[in-house]
Amino acid sequence: MRFFSSLFFPAPNPSYTATSFPGELLWIPQSLDYAQCEKGTALPAILINCLHARYFILFLHSNGEDIGMCHTFASRLRDLLEVHVLAVEYPGYGLCSGKPSEETLLSAAELSFRYVREVLQVAPADIIVMGRSMGAAAALFLAPWLD
User: Fold this and answer.
1) DSSP string covering 25-39, please?
2) How does 79-105 read in b/e, with b if 16+ C-beta sit within 10 Å?
3) Per-residue buried b or exposed e for 113-143, using 16+ beta carbons within 10 Å of the residue's own CB
4) Phi and psi (nearest 5°) for 120?
5) For each of the chain's 147 residues, which pLDDT tens digit applies?
């Protein structure tokens, strides 16, 4: 099983640190309750805001990269499309603890979508879920929740 995980989920060494993206790097607790957040259980993400944006892109990166590697891409999305962008990490990638697998990938996608809906209070009609490579599979997993 470990062979297949490393084949399908080739997590690179972290390309960022906890201080790499001041004002943009955040941690999403599993319970979505920051008062009950336990160390090592939160999901790292980069939130790149755009003044006066209506739409919100939830970006799910590809295998072989982490959110540090896609920060420039997410920033350009914000600038070109004038949208907010949340780039989410997966367990076992970047600074996120855990083991990479299909289950943890989909769990991270679901948690990040719930964060955008419940914490940031963005209406489903204003959320654009975008993924690259295996992130596209996670985006398709979230499609039914966009109704």
Assistant:
1) EEEE-TTS-GGG--T
2) eeeebbbbbbbbbbbbbbebebbeebb
3) bebbbeeeebeeeebbbbbeebbeebbebbe
4) -80, -15
5) 444 455 566 778 899 999 999 999 999 999 998 888 777 789 999 999 999 999 999 999 998 899 999 999 999 999 999 999 999 999 999 999 988 889 999 999 999 999 999 999 999 999 999 999 999 999 999 998 887
Q: Which single residue is written with the structure tokens 């939160």?
A: 42
Nearest residue to 113 via CA among 48, 41, 57: 57
- The residue among 57, 117, 64 whose CA lies nearest residue 88 is 57
Distance CA 128, CA 56 (A): 6
**pTM for the full predicted model:** 0.91
